Amino acid sequence: MPLWLILTGLALTAQAPASWVTVGVTQQAPILSGFASVQPSVPIAITALQSGVLTNLSVVPGESVQPGQIIGRLEGQQIAAALAAAQGASNAANASLAAERGKLADHLSTNAAVAQAQAAAASARAQLAALRAAASLQSPVAGQVQSLAAGPGAALQPGQAVAVVQPAAGAWVKAVLYGPRAATLFPGTAARFIPADGAPVVPVTLLGMQGTQADGGVVLAFSGQALQPGEAGTLSLFLPRRPVLLVPSSALVLDDGRWWVMLHDAQGDHAVQVVPGAAQGAQTPILSGLVAGDQVIVQDAALLYHRGIASQYQPPD
Hints:
Elements: H1 3-15, E1 20-22, E2 24-28, E3 31-39, E4 44-47, E5 52-55, E6 64-65, E7 70-75, H2 77-105, H3 111-134, E8 136-138, E9 143-148, E10 155-156, E11 161-167, E12 172-177, E13 190-195, E14 202-212, E15 218-224, E16 232-238, E17 242-248, E18 253-255, E19 258-265, E20 268-276, E21 283-288, E22 295-297, H4 301-310
Antiparallel strand pairs: 1-22, 2-17, 3-12, 3-16, 4-11, 5-7, 5-10, 6-9, 7-8, 9-11, 12-15, 13-14, 13-16, 14-15, 17-21, 18-19, 19-20, 20-21
Helix pairs in contact: 2-3
Keywords: Signal, Transport
Protein name: Multidrug resistance efflux pump
InterPro entries: MdtA-like_C, MFP_Cation_Efflux
């Protein structure tokens, strides 16, 4: 075969388009987990989960309380503004969902876009419900009020104690969780305590927030049955479902501590920086940098990326 024909074949092979996939959206319930240990029955502080002014304080030291009993409320401009913002976000998300459903009926949208809008609306509703629940200060356990740490009219910050309750009985789980979502959990949230020694998993329920560590860890208290004081393990809970973009892990390229994908669009193939989540088998969630419907290259993505970087440099004279 003539040399020019061989070289032509090689050139055509090098220029052949790489395969790509369309970025899809799926619903996912992220897992929040951290170290936990079972504590003996000790006083539990009822703390504010949001900023606000303490009103309607209805208990005194020595009074008995029941699980879920409201002992006070948070009011004032700060929590009112937060509630208004959350309500506005929920209304906007619902309107966006209705609009996407209307466009889908007219064949102007996609099922992926509707699913993404539906998940966003559900997330906004969950945040609004959590904020409304945080406006009511509730006793997480049955017990007796030991002391009050704040009085009516006090301006409270998240994590600030209002009252201390001595539980009537039972051990509890102390867990330390990290991340902005840990501070937004509200009493009644279901979780699982997984003992490190292989003992059966124990369903537990969030009682309340105990405070924040110097390293940012949020200390939370959970109740459950058949807890053994001194036992250690992991506390795990599912957060509200949210839309997640998934791409094949082979599409990701790591360069100088940053992650990239090769985006295929009308402008050709070019690198786009992304923020990936934890890999899930052959798929990786993308937290930012892409939108549903984007097309990313999965075959020889690293080769194409570095070829594009190399083309930006010229050899020295």
